[in-house]
Structures are given as C-alpha cells and as structure tokens.
Amino acid sequence: MPLYIKDDGTARLVAEFAELRGVSKQDAVKLAVRDALDRAAEAVPLRERFAALRKAHRLPRATGDVADKAFFDELSGEV
C-alpha cells in the first residue's frame, strides 16, 4: 500500500534525511520509523526509572524537626 506524504515540510525532512543517509525516500521513512519503534520499545517507564533512583539514593532518616514557617524563617535569618 502506498504512503502519500501531503505535507511539504514533512516531505522536505524526509528528502533531507534520505540525502544524509544516502538512501531512497522510501528507505529513509523505513529507517526513521524503525528507529522510533526501537527507541519506544527500549524506553524504560518513568515509574521504573524513579524506583531505581529511589533505590540508589535513599532518603535520610527523619530528624523529627518540623519544617514549618518558623523553621524556614530561622533558616533565612528572619527570626
């Protein structure tokens, strides 16, 4: 089934990519889509990335200090 690109800007990008890679426009589209699909398949979900960060960088133990307005005023010298 043919693929028609009706947007001039997209057609220019495909032509530029094809020239850069030294391939036909058809192969340029195929390469670009294959690369995008590969990156999407390899992408680690944000939830898993955050879980790995939390595991690698544990939070310090609770100090019992209350971080209220008075606490921040004292930190900034506004006692």
Q: What does the model show?
A:
This protein is an all-alpha fold and 79 residues long. The chain has one domain. It has helices at residues 8-21, 25-42, 46-56, 69-75. The mean pLDDT is 92.
Characterize this entry briefly.
The chain contains four helices and no strands.
The value of Rg in angstroms is 26 Å
Enumerate the spans where pLDDT stays under 50 for 5 or more consecutive residues.
none
Measured distance between first and last alpha carbons: 74 Å
> How many separate structural domains?
1
Q: What is the approximate shape?
A: elongated
Q: What string gives the helices and strands in order?
A: HHHH
Major sheet characteristics: none
What is the helix tally? 4
Overall strand count:
0
Strand content: under 5%
Q: Structural class given helices, strands, pairing?
A: mainly alpha
Keywords:
mainly alpha; 0% strand; elongated; single chain
SSE layout and pairing:
Elements (H helix, E strand, L loop, with lengths): L7 H14 L3 H18 L3 H11 L12 H7 L4
Helix pairs in contact: 1-2
